[in-house]
């Protein structure tokens, strides 16, 4: 497994390593699963995928909600195929919740409570999502910090679980078992000094706009993808839609995307540093990582 913050260089390094070891790459990013949302999600191009099989990219309808349990189910199915071909699987991504759920498990319940969920949705609408997040922070500070104050779906789910069980969702997670117990899973984390990561983030955002993020968002909208579709929550698309609605300029949008991406990268690292058994490297340490893989971890 290769994980790390956005723009750190996971895709490029994992493709090189997978090519070297006869591996196949399984996407571990929650937004790269959606069809048509390519530029803003940093999805590897077909050229970049050449020579190394890639899985779980562009296979979900952007109107559909793809969740952690969906990711686990699809990953386990894909792992069976990779193993049957005697290839080395590389799970690569930056969605900490998905990767942690795969490694450590998901608690089985409680199920959704429509009445309570409606109440929480109403509270978020009436007093603001951030106030609901502050309530979550009081009862489950670790999880609140991991997901951040803008993650509506996970904030509402966490409060729903707490109100139904009286137990923070983070404690439920602690009492579950992982899904990779049949595998020896080597966990490799990529990190960079903050100034360099910031530079890479800003370069990536500039390229997103240069390569047609606004045109892609307009095309998706013209094909009937509603603006409240789950895939439009990916970094950059909200601001792209604001430009298309003429609410802000493209330059203002670019600045906002850079700011939000920096904040997201910080939250990712907070999440990853609390995960166990990660071997941390710079993305330049390809030979050292290859030696670790050859040694079996």
Please report the total strand number as a whole number: 6
* Helix-strand makeup class: alpha/beta
Helix count, DSSP H or I runs of 4 or more residues: 14
The CATH architecture of the largest domain comes to: 3-Layer(aba) Sandwich
Distance between the termini: 11 Å
- Helix proportion: 40-55%
Shape: globular
Strand residues, percent: 5-15%
In CATH, what is the class of the largest domain?
Answer: Alpha Beta
Averaging pLDDT over every residue, what do you get?
94
- In the sheet with the most strands, the strands line up as 3-2-4-1-5-6
Q: In CATH terms, what is the fold-level topology of the largest domain? A: Rossmann fold
How much is the radius of gyration in Å?
19 Å
Mind describing the biggest β-sheet?
A: 6 strands, parallel
CATH superfamily of the largest domain: P-loop containing nucleotide triphosphate hydrolases
Which residues form runs of ≥5 with pLDDT under 50? none
Order of helices and strands: EHEHEHEHHHHHHEHHHHEH
The number of domains is 2
